[in-house]
Amino acid sequence: MKHTSEEVYNRLNDQIHQELAAWYGYLGMSIWCSKNYFAGFAKWLNSQSQEEYMHAVKIQQFLIDRGVQITLQPISEPRQEYSSITEIFEAALAQEQSNSKSLNSIFQLAFESQAYASVTELQWFITEQVEEERTAQTNLAHIKMVASDPAAVLELDKSFGARESIFPIPPA
Ligand SMILES: [Fe+2]
Ligand SMILES: [Fe+2]
């Protein structure tokens, strides 16, 4: 079956939505952490949500450079209820895995379509996802190690709070 660059651009347009859904998802997690007195995890997740926003902007810029008409889609309400910090980082990992899956499938389409500019653009994202998944796996593993020890959880919260963000976050 012959694909076209057009289809690849449509999928990249959808990927803007996927990245913004991730932005919103992390924001929901960050807010839950703030509400539950985990200022460090909240800050880390807010920084992570900013990264997702930057990913959306990166794809948007690529499509503009290619002269593609972008259609922004509605973003549905993210999950906001969690029962523990472990659940938060399970959801973060699942979100990254689902994002990787989506990027891989667009990469395959771009490759089959011989849409080389999109292949190159997507390569950056595929590389980024390796790091994102590793970070999400590590975070979840660390949370699980300390989950039954509140003092250790608070220590971990503090170390997460040291992350630098792209845009300034108002102090807690
Ligand atoms: Fe992303
Ligand atoms: Fe991500």
Describe the 3D structure.
The protein is mainly alpha-helical. The chain has one domain (5-69, 82-160): Ferritin, core subunit, four-helix bundle (Ferritin), CATH 1.20.1260.10. It has helices at 5-35, 39-65, 85-112, 116-146, 150-160. The N and C termini lie far apart (54 Å). The mean pLDDT is 96. One fe (ii) ion (FE2) is lined by residues 22, 52, 96, 99, 132.
Outline:
This protein has 172 residues and is an all-alpha fold.
Termini, distance in Å? 54 Å
User: What is the overall number of helices?
Assistant: 5
What's the shape? elongated
- How do the helices and strands follow one another from N- to C-terminus? HHHHH
| Average pLDDT reading | 96
Fraction of residues in β-strands: under 5%
Q: Could you say how many structural domains there are in total?
A: 1
